[in-house]
Specification:
This protein is α/β, with parallel strands linked by helices. 52% of the residues lie in helices and 21% in strands. The strands form two sheets. Strands 3, 4, 5, 6, 7, 8, 9, 10, 11 and 12 form a ten-stranded mixed β-sheet that branches. A two-stranded antiparallel ribbon has the order 1-2. Helix 1 packs across helix 2, helix 2 packs across helix 3 and helix 6 runs antiparallel to helix 12.
Amino acid sequence: MEIRQLRALAAIAEARTFTAAAARVHVTQAAISMQIKQLEEEVGLPLFVRTPRRCVLTEAGERLLEHAQRILREHDGALAEMAELSGATHGRLRVGSASAMFSSDPLPQILHELHGEHPHAEVSVVSGTSESLVKQIVAGDLDIAFVSLPVEARGVQTELLLRDELIAIASPEHPNARQRVVSAYALAGERLNLGERGGNTRRLIDEFFEQAGLKPRVAMELARTNSIKKMVERGMGVGIVPYQSAVEEIADGRLVRWWIEGAQINSELGFAYLSGGYQPPVMQTFVRLSRAHFKEITRELEARQQRHRTAATTKETKSATKAKGAKAAKTKKRVRGR
């Protein structure tokens, strides 16, 4: 039983086809087929059921996969430790991100600082849904990922980095653009652009409406927050997104923000990585830098939210006072007329 055979087993289990798995481990389809054949001959049992469109693990394949994943983690950890002991500075870090906001900022700055401390490290970044990234961590294809929390996966450890309130966003041309708060009932009646089902943010939104006893009008289900914002900017419905993701568009006047009345729905972003696994120096540095950046982001976010809430309250108070004064003046004029 060889390491390359176990990697082939894990790759096929994840990709579900020999062709895709071969590309993942950088071998030909014929080579990966031969590796699995040799592995099946050695264990004396079939590991996959082949169908025209995909490969499915047999019971023997599932059990061997569990052992293979542990062996591969230990193998990779041993190599990393040996490299550290020998004074190697190259290292390897495979990062996943389910947050488009994080991928655009502050990830580039974090990677820039990481390069300064580990100039020869091989760093790769992939994007995907939180669910798919967690699967890649479990399979040993990623070292760490930024995902929405909570995560329910055996052997995966998480750490909260950012808690962000969900808000409703609308076009400045919306008839109710000047309002500051929207009720659950009014929101459910809008044409809503939401994220795809399966993510934690969408789950929070669905639970919010369910608890309110409302069925929202979902016009579009989009994979990316940026797509939701673009649709809303063009007047094609209302969106519900994390506050931090829409700060720039709100400040520029491209979108307006509504606080959701009677609810404070928080989305959570954090690290996910294998629990109990070896963390090479480059990963330890990456975690330290990320924590520092998110601490600053949280401080700025809380301050900005407080300023906006204070401004909204002040404006509403002034409007109420003005309306009260106008009503009093009208009443006084009516009394004089008598």
